[in-house]
Write a structure and sequence with these properties.
By secondary structure, this protein is an alpha+beta fold. The protein is globular, with a radius of gyration of 15 Å. The termini are far apart. It comes from Micromonospora humidisoli.
Length: 73
């Protein structure tokens, strides 16, 4: 029995933190949410996800961040 065929690019925690604009603690909270996609594969070094699954989650479940505005002065 071989490894599953990879249907697209994979991302790990570092890439997902950049994609989501969050730090490590918040990422840990997000990945356990029931609507977050399951990892494509869990390796000895950690889990990896399909980039397309993470992008779909961001599109469907994350609110756009408001543009940064300088409200002081």
């Amino acid at each position: 029995m071989g490894e599953p065929e990879v249907p697209g690019p994979l991302v790990g925690p570092a890439e997902m933190m950049a994609m989501l604009g969050v730090g490590r603690s918040r990422l840990r909270q997000i990945v356990v949410h029931p609507k977050f996609p399951r990892p494509f594969q869990t390796l000895q070094g950690g889990s990896v996800w399909l980039r397309s699954d993470v992008e779909a989650y961001i599109r469907d479940h994350r609110q756009p961040r408001p543009a940064d505005e300088d409200t002081q002065g």
